[in-house]
Amino acid sequence: MKALVTGASSGIGYDIAIELSNRGYDIIAVARNKEKLENLRNKCKTNVIIIPMDLSEEENVFKLYEQVKNENIDILVNDAGFGVFGKFTDTELHRELNLIEVNIKALHILTKLFLKDMVKRDSGRILNVSSIAGMMPSGPMMSTYYASKAYVLSLTRGIDIELKKMRSNVKISVLCPGPVDTDFNDVANVKFQIKPLSSSYVAKYTVKKMFKNKLEIVPGFSIKCIRFFSKIIPSKILSNISYKMQMRKCKG
């Protein structure tokens, strides 16, 4: 059994890789930081192949698929991604385009290519990592990030329906966490008001729900409450609440 995990050098991807290893899966771990991937290999109980690679470059995404397509990947975990904080008029365009390349394009390509293989053999799982942000009507101060996570959520929901209509045994899930104690905060330059969950807890919860064929995985009671109220509060009001909450994240 083999699992391919992107964004595996830290945070949720790192801990999901360990959890899958604990369940007997060999791991193919992908991230930019080779040293951190080596650390992951030392933590895992099963065989780990590390692939240091920058998935913001489209050519690398196709290279990754070509490199491992004959490995008969049982589980694909699309965790690679990051956020950018700030007013849309102030944030750096190049960094936002880089975000889109990783959060959307790389995930889309890998999902498409590996899903086709899985459907052919009628087995396999894909876990796409979105965010509770993807369930919100908008994300002022993090507009590009929120939009990217909404894309991931919508894509996964659509694929799930298609797989069910095909009566395929391939399963797809989407993880929508709230704040998690990872280096995401530093990369995005934000701090959260809600106490973050540990990435280890989120990983164990996610893998458990994934194997129960749960489509939308939302860890943590407070985030479940946010998800509930997002369905009943008018979008305009929710967007203004989101703006105020985002402004409190600014690191002083």
Strand order of the largest sheet: 3-2-1-4-5-6-9
Structural Rg? 17 Å
Secondary structure class reads: alpha/beta
Approximate shape = globular
- Distance between the terminal alpha carbons, to the nearest Å? 47 Å
How large is the share of residues in beta strands? 5-15%
Architecture blueprint of SSEs:
Blueprint: E1 2-6, H1 11-22, E2 26-31, H2 34-43, E3 48-52, H3 58-68, E4 75-78, H4 93-121, E5 125-129, H5 143-165, E6 171-175, E7 180-181, H6 184-188, E8 197-198, H7 199-211, E9 216-217, H8 221-232, H9 235-247
Parallel strand pairs: 1-2, 1-4, 2-3, 4-5, 5-6, 6-9, 7-8
Helix pairs in contact: 1-7, 3-4, 4-5
Short description:
With 252 residues, this protein is an alpha/beta fold.
What does this structure look like?
By secondary structure, the protein is of the alpha/beta class. Helices cover 51% and strands 14% of the residues. The chain has a seven-stranded parallel β-sheet with strand order 3-2-1-4-5-6-9, with helices on both faces. A two-stranded parallel ribbon has the order 7-8. Helix 4 packs parallel to helix 5 (143-165). It is globular and about 50 Å long. The N and C termini lie far apart (47 Å).
